[in-house]
Structures are given as structure tokens and as C-alpha cells.
Here is the input.
Amino acid sequence: MSWNSHPRAGRIEKLWLAGTGLGLVAAAVASGTVGTTVLDFFIPGSQPNSLTTRLASSTGCLNCHANYNQGESEPGAGWAHSMMGQASRDPMFYACLAISNQDAAFAGELCLRCHTPQGWLVGHSNDPTGGALVDTDFQGIGCSVCHRMVNPTYVPGESPAVDQSIIAGLPFPPVNPHSASFVMDPQDRRRGPFDLTINPHQWLQSPFHTSSSMCATCHDVSNPIYTRQPDNTYALNQLDARNLDGDKYHQFPIERTYSEWANSLFAQGPVDMGGRFGGNTPFVSTCQDCHMPKTEGYGANPVFGAADRPDLPQHFFNGANTWVLRSINSLYPDTDTYMTPEGVDASVLRAQGMLAAASDLEVSVDGSTLTTRVINMTGHKLPTGYNEGRRMWVNVQFFDAGGSLIAERGHYDNATATLTTSDTKVYHAEAGVDAAVSAISGVPAGPSFHFALNNQWYFDNRIPPMGFTNAGFAAVQASPVGVAYADGQYWDDTTYDIPAGTARAEVRVYHQTTSKEYVEFLRDENHTNAAGQTAYDQWVMWGKSEPTLMDFQSIEIVSPCDADYNNDGVADQGDIDALIDAVAGGSTLPRGNPDVNQDGVVDQGDVDAAINLIAGGPCPF
Here is the structure.
């Protein structure tokens, strides 16, 4: 399709308001359970209507940065087929937004500034439901959002010289990056990592755009209506007043993806990951190294003189979302989204590939116990980011010698989208409200999906990254909750009892973007508009967020009474010899467990037990 036309310009894309009068929506927002105002959700940085020149529509960018036969590596094509590019069309976002506004009046102010910065910067969050959004407001994290962003920390000799005056002129400069506390160049000077050889528009070279700290702008999120107390609880602020402190670590932590990375091995320098996240180098360090893997190619149409670069960042931005892009493609015409069905398929495959690369799985057997080890190969918790509805789990199936299924742990029913959680490990995080907020809001104390009200973490067993330390994660409000990980631990083990008669076990690790419990909450708790029902219907339409397979291992289970230790198909003297060698420390057994009598010690007693078995004696186990 052509990127050059936009025949539906002017269309107001408010699918989530269907069936609800705008007046009723506004009334509902103004009467949230907690009587917050727009001031309570204040975040430092550039403010609405403060730019000399509005952010440019991405439509114009696509004229040069897409549609020149370079496929997915064209910046415009990658961006359009990303959740960043479609962030302000996401039906799950609007379902969450509606309940957030119900729970805390004007909470949408916090949400919209991240999901539609262009709309927020021109004041269109004055209706926190998104009802005032129009046209380019729906371009998500548009090209100009990132490419006019200024490093809020001026670095002499590195930052563009003009940045010093831009930062100095801010009434409310950011303390640290989070929650879309961006600083925008008030003029249309577009920034990026390269020294351009052509001058199609005003541009400035900016090393900031290759740094993870740029990603922190939106990938650490805090709720400014709460302030951290000396006992590490979070109390509601005095309402109808700006929280001018601005320090994310003094507010309630909603997401800490950047801070997790900053306290990982990857923040200390490049790590050789063997190319598992793509790109043309095996060494990765920054967020961009994995989520914008480099390739060789043109960043713009070469007809206009663009350089052929060996280190072109691909604008994929893929993460763990595997279904919502299909939903957006079905809800909006391609002329609005700039997506194609083929491009959506490719993006979903990239997300699935990223999930497969995110972890490794090891499986071992010791006697009647099977142990799984899930290893985090990312630079942040696994899983990370927005926690509501997202989960990862271990599935184990035990088979007999004939291949029949004996037992299963962590069963997922695809028809009902129901996961059996009681017999396996589920990696997830649960936030909720404490007793004080419960008394104010009426929401029961404990874990909840009430995103805008939550002020306590009740559980978090997500696996930390390489380089994890408890002190480092505690300092950035990202500690495990309800479980313990040792310093340096970036894996987690789970043990399972092996049922009698098992000959083989299959182990799988799955990730799910949206759980049944979460999407039903969004549907059932929405008393404002149709956003929850729309999200639920789309979830059903697109496979109920079918789990993505991350890892698979199959392992043979050898009975302690099976004496074929050398794996030649016969139990005889050769097996005794192999066992004696193993007991003496000369080698490992090709098959089976050398602790034959299962007393916890490998010694002569095991040789005697094996001789008895091979001679036809009874099996005591």
C-alpha cells in the first residue's frame, strides 16, 4: 500500500465510547471513587501547549522513511507495525483507562501522556477518557515524539548546544526519567544518532538516542498520587495539588523495566549473547540493542541521498505482546494505521521469537524428582513491564512407556483460557490496595487490578536478570515480594514428584499477554463505556491471548529398578562395570542414577544393589 495518502484525515477514532453519551462519560470521570484532580497526576518535563512548533505528523515522515522496497527494516514500516506506533489505538489500553478514571478522577492524565504524547502536548488530555483525541493523536509514540526528545541531563561536549537553554527554560525540569516526563525541543529540530550527510529538515546529532536512559522516559512508571513513607508504605497525598518532588523513587512503582536494566549486568557493558536477539552483533547492552537490532541498510529512501549504513537501528520495538496488534488491525482501516496484514504477521512472529530468546530451560532428574530451571536471558525481570494479566508458567507432562499421558502440571485449557495454577510455578506480580486506600475507595484490601489505586506490591516472583543484587533492586523499588532470590541469581528452579510408571517427561515454558481473569475484570468492572466489552470481544476473536511457547525440553525418566546403566539395551556385567567406574569417580553413567539404593550416597552399597537387580532380585523401590 502507499504511505502517502490519508483519505480519512479528520476521523475521530473513539470506538471505545460507542453506546455511551459523552456527557455521561465526563460526569463519570469527574466523580471517580477517589476525588483526585488533574493536578494530582502532575509529572515534570515539557507541559501541554509549551511547544513553539507542534510535533509533526508521522504521515509526512513516511514519505521518505518508508515504501522504498527495503521491507521490514524501513523505519516507517517497523514503527507502524509496532505496539509503540499503535499505542493510542490499543483496545486493552482504553479498557484499563476507563476503569482508572472510574477509580480515581482524572487518572487518565497519567495514562494518556504515555500512550498519546502528541495529543497530550496539545492539551487533548483535558478529557481524560481520550474523548478529545483527534487525527495525529492516534499515531501513538509518533516519529517526532522520540526524534524531538531532549536529554534532560545536559552533557557538555555531547548534547546539542541548544539543549542547555531548553532545559534551563523548563518551569518543571524532570528529576529522573519516568512516566513520560519527556523534554521536547520546542522547535522542529529532529534528533538521532547519526551525523546526516543530507539536510531534508532541521536535525541535530544526539547520542542520547542510543542510550537506555531515553527508554526510561516511559518504561519506568510511577503513580504520583502516592508518596513513599519511611516504612516503605505508600500514602495518598493531599489532593488537588501538584506533587512537585518529581522523584520516581519517592512515588509508588508501577513499572520498573528501565531500573531493572540499570541494575543488571547489561548496564555495566556489552554482554555476548550469541546473536539471540538478532542484529548484526552478538554483543548487547542497551535496550535498543535488543529491541531495535541493527542491520545494514538505508534509513530513508536512497533516492534522496540517504547513506547505506552498516548499523541501521530497526524500528521494531517488539516485546511480549502477541495478539493486540491483530486486534488493532481488525478495528481500524489500514489507511489509518499504515499497517498491512503481512506486516502484522511479521511483527507477531518477531514478538514470539523474542519470547523464545528471552529464556533458556534446563531439566534434570534425581531419583523420583524432576527439576526445571528457567533462566532469564534478558536485561530485566522475566516477565517485566505492565504486570496486570501478564504471566509465564511451567507446564510438565508425564508419559508412560507406551506414550500415554499419565499426569500434567500447569495445564492450560485453550477452549476456556483457564490455567491450573495450583500444581506448578507461575511467574507474575500482583499489586493491590492497602487498608488505608481500601477505606477511602471501597476496594477490598489485597491484590487487585485497580491500576490507578494500587499502592502495595503483594507478590512478585518474576525472575531477575544477570547481575541482580537484592540491594540494587531494593534501591529502585523492584525487590522480589513473597519469594527470595540470592544475589547473582538469574534463574529459578521448580521441583515435581515423578508419578509411578513415568518413562518420559516433556517440559514447556509459556508466556501469556492477557489472562482470562484480567480481561474479564476489564469487561465486568467497566460502568462507564463499552471499552471493556470491546477489549473482551477482541480477546476472544484473536484466540483468547493464546500462550506463546518459550522453551521445550523432553527427558527420559529411568526407573531406579532399570539396571541398563551403559544404555546398550541389556542389563548385564557391562552395566556393573559402568556403575563401578561411576562410583569410583571415573565417569558419569550413560543412563540412570548411580545412587541405586537411593540412600543419598554413591558407594559400594549401590554396586551391591545393582548386582542384586541384575541377578533377578526384587526391586525395593
In short: The longest strand covers residues 391-399. The chain has 20 helices and 23 strands.
